[in-house]
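Subject: Sanity check before I submit

Could someone independently write out the structure tokens for this chain? I want to compare against mine line by line before I put it in a report. The sequence has 312 residues.
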Amino acid sequence: MKAFALYASAALTIFMAAAPAHADPESCRKVKFSDLSWTDLSLTNATASVILTALGYEPEQTILGLPVTFESLKNKDIDVFLGNWLPVQEQEFKSYVNNGDVDVITTNLTGAKFTLAVPTYVAKAGVTSYDDLSKFSDKFNSTIYGIEAGSNQPLLDMISAGRHGLKDWNVVESSEAAMLTQVDKMTKGKEWIVFLAWAPHPMNLNFDLTYLSGGDKEYGPNFGGATVRTLTRKGYRQECPNVTKFLENLHFDIDYENVGMNEIMTNSVEPIDAARKLIKQHPDMLTAWLDGVKTFDGKDGYAAAKAAVLTN
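---
Independent answer below. Compare away.
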């Protein structure tokens, strides 16, 4: 009897050693993302979803507004938000971070921009800063092309205050699509135009543009420089360490997002298909994203994703 017990114990030990341990508990299999219908966020959510699916998880996206996203994180109705843009979201939502209602996992994008730009042929002619614009008022028809009303307030305040010598200038408020149509039309004729521009966005691929310096008062330093952070609901790091390790590794760059957004916006490719295409084009990024990450059942994460994404 004693010998049998020893045999059974040894067999159980061997079985337990051979059986893969789950990387995360069952409660972590479903990973819930917030989707704000922003093209950049659709791309990054899709990228995460393609990889998590290959790892054996079940990602899902829910369309929410920005304030509802923060409340949903606080209430643990969603798990992950990949679109915490700073500084634009900082003041309104900083209490969620300061009060510990959400966890900051990482900064997933640096080098984003939001400020005025001109076609590069205009920059080469002498317009490289906000202060240069007034020297060429006639060429610009004293006009700045903005986007929808409510999004151009820094420009309206700038003109009202007479900063950069632009006291009598006008801002055309329409929409992103209308502004880009105007840029396309005028650049084809080598006309002079100054407009709101940002990165990541396909405009950086479709137009040869130059961002203007000197707009720190209007949009902040570093050409309206911005970063994007990954947030999770409070305690998610402890509950789901393997998914969190993946999220910590999941860093993007401007080129990746410019190209991916162009696939979605210009070429009408579905976000999930655009993400698959880009991952195949950037196998080095997949390697970095899955460093130290397992599948849901505890196996090698990179091997599983490589088989599912890179070779299919």
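---
OP: Matches mine. For the report I'm noting this point. Strands lie at 30-35, 58-63, 80-86, 102-119, 143-145, 170-172, 195-199, 209-211, 226-233.
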